[in-house]
Amino acid sequence: MQTEHKxxxxxxxxxxxxxVQEDQPGxxxxxxxxxxxxxEGQQGNAREHQDTxxxxxxxQDEMQERGAPTPDDHSEMIRKMRSPWLWTNFTVITxxxxxxxxxxTFGYGNLAQVGESVVRITxxxxxxxxxxxxxxxxxxxxxxxxxLVLFGTLSLWPHPRTDxxxxxxxxxxxxxxxxxxxxxxxxxxxxxxxxxLVGALVITLxxxxxxxxxxxxxxxxxxxxxDIPPGWTYxxxxxxxxxxIIALAFIGWFISRYLAAYQLGYIPSAWxxxxxxxxxxxxxSKVSRSWPISDAGLGAxxxxxxxxxxxxxxxxxxxxxxxxxxxxxxxxxxxxxxSIILVILQPVAVGTWCSLCLVTALxxxxxxxxxxxxxxxxxxxxxxxxxxxxxxxxxxWVGDTVEGGAKDARxxxxxxxFAQAVPAMIWGVTVPWRLLVSAALGLWLMAAPAVFxxxxxxxxxxxxxxxxxxxxxxIAMAEVVRxxxxxxxxxxxxxxxxxWLFSGASAGARVNDAxxxxxxxxxxxxxxxxxxxxxxxxxxxx
Length: 542
Known about the structure:
This protein is mostly helical. The chain has helices at residues 52-66, 71-82, 86-106, 116-125, 130-154, 160-183, 189-208, 215-222, 239-263, 278-283, 286-289, 295-311, 317-320, 322-332, 334-344, 346-349, 355-387, 392-398, 418-425, 433-452, 456-475, 487-498, 507-523, and strands spanning 10-13, 21-22, 36-39. α3 (86-106) runs antiparallel to α7 and α14 runs parallel beside α15.
C-alpha cells in the first residue's frame, strides 16, 4: 500500500512584520496587510539562507497575487501620497537658505545695533558677553539652515525611510529654533522673531500640512474605524472641539511674546493696566531671574506647541495619534497647572500681581476642561486596544482602530449656523451653579485681605487658597473630571483651621474665612448635571 505524501503544514506571516505568524490566512493585527503563506520550518534553519533571490522574487509574486503591497509598492505609495505635497519640501529648503543668510542680512552680531535695554538686562542677569551671544545665534542659524536644506532634500526621495527621517529631522530643527533665541539671549528682536517664526513654519510644513511620516502610521490611518469613542455621545477630537483651545493658545502666545520682549531687553517697559509697576516687578523679580532663560519666552514656546498640536491630526486623532494627544494633554494639563500655580504664587513670593500674567493664567485655566476629555478618550482607547491583544507601545506611537464607537453624525458641519456650532465647542463641559458659586467664593477670598486689612501669613493663605478654589471649580466643570471638585473640601477645611492659626487676621477676617470654608465644603458634595456619556469612564463621574 502506497503511503500518501503530506506536505509540510503551511504558516502565514505578515510581509511587514515577520514575527506575526498564523496557521490560517487572514490579516496582520498590526498593520492590516494580508498574511502571506510560507513554509513551516523556513525561519531559523539553514534553508532560509539558500537561494535568497529566488525566494524573494517568489514572495513578491505571491504578495502581488494576494493583493499585499511589496517593498516597491511601499515606495510607490509614498510617491503617490507625497507628490501633492512636494511644495512643502521645496519651501523648507528655501527657508533653510533664508536662515543661512539671515545673520548677515539682519546683523545678529552687530554690537552697534544693541539697545540700552539689552545691555541693562545683560548686567542685571549676569548673562554671557554680548559678542559671544551674537556669534552663538549666528552660527546656530547657519547650522540650522544647512540642516533644513539637507533634511528637506532627503525627504524628496520617495522612500519610506528617507521620507520618515527627513521630515522628522526638519521637525526637530524647527523645535530647536523655538529655543535658540532664548538659550543664547538673542541681542536682536529680529533674530528672536525670525527664528521662532521659521521654526513654527518648518514644523508645520514637515508634520502638520502633509500626513505624518511613517508607513506604519499611514496604514493605521487607512483602517476603517469610529470617529466617536465607544460608549461616548460626541467626538472629543472634532474641529469645533479644538477651535476654542487653539484660540486661547493664540491669546497666551501673543501675551507671552510681549512679556518676553521686555525680559530680553527689546522694549524698555511692560504695560500693566491694573497694578501699575506690577508686571515689571514680576518680570524682574528674583523668582524670574532664577530661570536660565526667559520664563515668559518659555511660555511662548509652550503656547506655540499647543497651537501646532491643536491643528495636528484628523477628527479621529484620539485613536490614530495617541502619542500626540498625550503630549498635547501634558502641555495643557500638568504644565498648564504649573503655570497657573506660579501665577497664583506671585503675591506670596513677590508681593504683587501681573495683569497680563493673570490673563494668560485664565486662558490656560479655561483650556484645561476643554482638553481633558480627549485625553480620557485616548486613554480608554489604549486600554481597550491592549485588552484586544494589540501591542501597547506600537499602538501608542502609530495608532489603530477599535471595536465599537460610531461615525460622527452629531457634530455640525462646515457652514452650520452659529447657534449650532457654539454648543458643539463645549460638549463635555457644564457649569453647575454650585461650581460657579465656589469659583465666586474663591475670587472673594483673593480680594478679602484688602477688604479686611489682613496681612502677612493670613493674607497669603487667603490669596493662595482662593486662587486654588477657583482653579479646582473651573477644571471640575469638565464632566470627565467632575470628581476633582472634592479638592475644594480640603481647601475649605484649611480655611476654617488656618483662620485661627495664623497672625495678621482681624476677627472679621477669621469669621469670613470660617464661613467661606464651610460654604465651599457644602457646595462640593453634589455632582451637578452631566449631559454626555463617556463609555467605561461613566463610573468615575461621581
